[in-house]
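Thread: "does anyone have the structure for this chain?"

Original post by V.I.:
We have the sequence but no experimental structure in hand. Need at least a predicted one for the grant figures.
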Amino acid sequence: QVQLVESGGGLVQAGGSLRLSCVGSGRTLRRYDMGWFRQAPGKEREFVADMRWYSTSTYTDSVKGRFTISRDDAKNTVYLQMNSLKPEDTAVYYCASKRDFISDYEYWGQGTQVTVSS
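Reply from O.Q.:
Generated one for you, tokens below.
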């Protein structure tokens, strides 16, 4: 059974930083594409960043230069380092896993709340 568990969310002032973690079990994350998504109140879930199994990463425009996705294979964990946070980054953040580029995300974590105060 595959499980993804996020942690690291919290309350931070604008301009601050947080690092989110996504620990996997039942799946070796480095063999799969991993993504981070977020959902703000009243809005649809949106893509934030992803990392292919071969380590190429992409970001949505609003976080480029501020967020970094990375992976620690020894810990079977994917991270999202978030710097220069803005109030508009406030959302529940989810990690997800899929087999490859053309597949849909098939496993999701429960989410972690990030709140950025102005």
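V.I.: this helps a lot. The first strand starts at residue 3 and ends at 7.
O.Q.: and DSSP finds no helices and eleven strands in the chain.
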